[in-house]
Design brief:
Largest sheet: 7 strands, mixed
Strand content: over 45%
Shape: elongated
Distance between the termini: 40 Å
Radius of gyration: 14 Å
Number of strands: 11
Structural class: mainly beta
Order of helices and strands: EEEEEEEEEEE
Low-confidence stretches: none
Number of helices: 0
Helix content: under 10%
Mean pLDDT: 95
Length: about 120
Amino acid sequence: QVQLVESGGGLVQPGGSLRLSCAAAGSTGRISAMAWYRQAPGRQRELVAEVTSSDNISYADSVKGRFTISRDNAKNTVTLQMNNLKPEDAAVYYCNAEYWRWGQRYDSWGQGTQVTVSS
């Protein structure tokens, strides 16, 4: 199994920056893609950014040019640098890891970290 622990998040004013970090433990050698999702109250969880094992990166259109995802395979971490934050970025952010075991795909989730964007 893979366990994920997130850090970062908090309260920031519009236009500010935050950095989220996620550390993976356990069967980290089985991890393929890592990603950040978010869920605002009353809304479905949505993919924010993803980085695959071959370092292919994708972003939600709403965060392109403002957020940057990066992955350190040696440290088993993934970070999300969020710049020029907007009120609509406020949500609980979740780290996700996709991993494989015996040919079957699994998802692991962090506990979530709150991001609040408000003046």
